[in-house]
Amino acid sequence: MSTDPTLSRPAGVPDASSPTAWYDGDQDRSGRDVVLRIVREFIIPRRRLVIRAMLAMVFVAATTGALPFLMQVAADRVFVGKELAVLYALPPIIIVTMALRSLAEYFGRITEARISGEIVAELRQRLFQRLAGADLGFLQSTHSAKFISVFASDTLIVNNAASQTLTAIARNALQSVALIFAMLWLDWVLGLLVLMSLPFAIYLMGRQRKRLRRSVHRALSGSGDIATLVSQMLQGIRVVKAYDQERAEAERASASIIRTRNANLQTQRTRALTGPFTEGLSGIGFAAAIFYGGWQGIEGRLTLGDFMGFMAAAMLIYQPLKSLAGLQNLLSEGIIAARRVFAILDETPKVVEAPGARPLVLSGGAIRFEGVTFSYAPGIPVIEDVTLDIPAGRKVALVGPSGAGKSTLLNLVLRFYDPSAGRVLIDGQDLKTATLASVRRASALLTQDPVLFDDTVRANIAYGSPAASDADVEAAARGADAHGFITALPKGYGTRVGEAGGMLSGGQKQRIAFARAMLRGSPILLLDEPTSALDANSEARVQATLDTLFEGRTVLMIAHRLSTVKKADLIVVMDKGRVVETGTHDTLVAAGGLYAHLHRTQLAGEAAPAEAEVAAPAESRAAALP
Hints:
Elements: H1 31-43, H2 47-80, H3 84-133, H4 136-139, H5 144-186, H6 188-195, H7 198-235, H8 237-242, H9 246-298, H10 304-345, E1 367-377, E2 380-390, E3 395-399, H11 406-413, E4 421-426, E5 429-430, H12 436-441, E6 443-446, H13 457-461, H14 470-479, H15 483-487, H16 506-520, E7 524-528, H17 536-550, E8 554-558, H18 562-565, E9 570-575, E10 578-583, H19 585-591, H20 594-624
Parallel strand pairs: 3-8, 3-9, 6-7, 7-8
Antiparallel strand pairs: 1-2, 1-4, 4-5, 9-10
Helix pairs in contact: 1-5, 1-10, 2-3, 2-5, 2-10, 3-5, 5-6, 5-7, 5-10, 6-9, 7-9, 7-10, 9-10, 14-16, 16-17, 19-20
């Protein structure tokens, strides 16, 4: 899932699990187990509503089953017996029966809709809570668009299986049972002739089920892939356009769309076979019943009323049986979607609170890494046996090449991950024994790319400090040198910043992030080079703000620029997951180690552009000479 890139897993370090294992669905879950879980977790807790719906279904089935008998009475006693009293009595009875049937069906469907709405809401609430509480490693293993696809699409499919499909199966099954009873009551031989094709239909539908599940799985996975492509294209639209890759991206999307279309088409083909199978096999039964019934009628062993009533039941049973055949297809879709939903719901976070965890008692914000080793994947340590003390109120800079483990140390302070060995302590307290909320409140995080939400400036500054007043928000903004540009916005603090703060400049976004950190008031400040993406003017303003923000706080920062490094009381040089040097800027330069090499490399990189700027005017003057 998309998270801040500076705190993600280092490049080249594999995840311990397959990136799309959960998205492919837990194939070990049988369809029966999935259905039973849906019933247990979503249907049974709503048993009162389900009972109401079932009672309505029973009434609908009973009134449906009464119609063949009314047809029998009409044929025998009106058309054959010429009974005028029965002719007068039948229409009101039929009207009342059909009216009551319609009311019961309406009540049942409204109840089903309520069950459906509640299930979708509960599924999405549980999914959102699980995603919000999931480990970073799990979220980063899959593109965020696939989580969104499950959240928006798969929950609806599971809902269809949980409410509409299961209740529709019950409704159609009850009607089928009532009509089968009516047929067998009127003439059991005719009934068996009509139903003799049913076992063959069940057998053929069973053979279709596996093919249907494969095509549905491909179609649902394809929908997630398309969502991923759209998300990536929109997020990287500037790069797409800058490198003239619009056509290439469109071709990639087209290939995925066509694959998904073909999978959907295969699903529809398999579904479409259900109707012809049912109709073809039913036709054989109907033909046999008509032949046998006609023969019995000619022989005088079957009355017109019995035959008409039977045929009414036989015609009425066709629709619920056809619906049952189609619903098993929808149930297959629901099982596949439910596997993916349950894979997320069953994801167990590795970072959890210990029994009896207590809030941190903060005194100054001293940090200690004690023999810390950490691996994202077994056998590949990213940090190895790191011991480091950061006294309260001191500023410590982490320096080193990419992949040295600097970002991982910040992750461990926030307890995004737990060390494989060793301990991380704040003010002498092991983070594993503290509540997660108190660990997160102890620190404020600032990164290269500040994260802003599509909300107002006020809401973004107060994020993490919901009890803050408007005066508190404004004071924090003033401290971060942001009040001036905020008041110049169209609606001041009530201005929405747009998606990812897109309505603001880089420096403005960063200063809002600083204001958020100031308002938070945490004793520890974690920085991942928050000025590296800014131009010189913006950086100068932000650096001045940082000086204010640093006051009275313990600062642990990942630093690349000399301007940031020189602010540190202590510089910690890391390489390949280990601390290789510590000291001040001057002592480390004099030592001639890794830090001195990085320092010389950076100076050479900064000098080259300056020399080019000096040389360019001279070249221009030379070109102008005759």
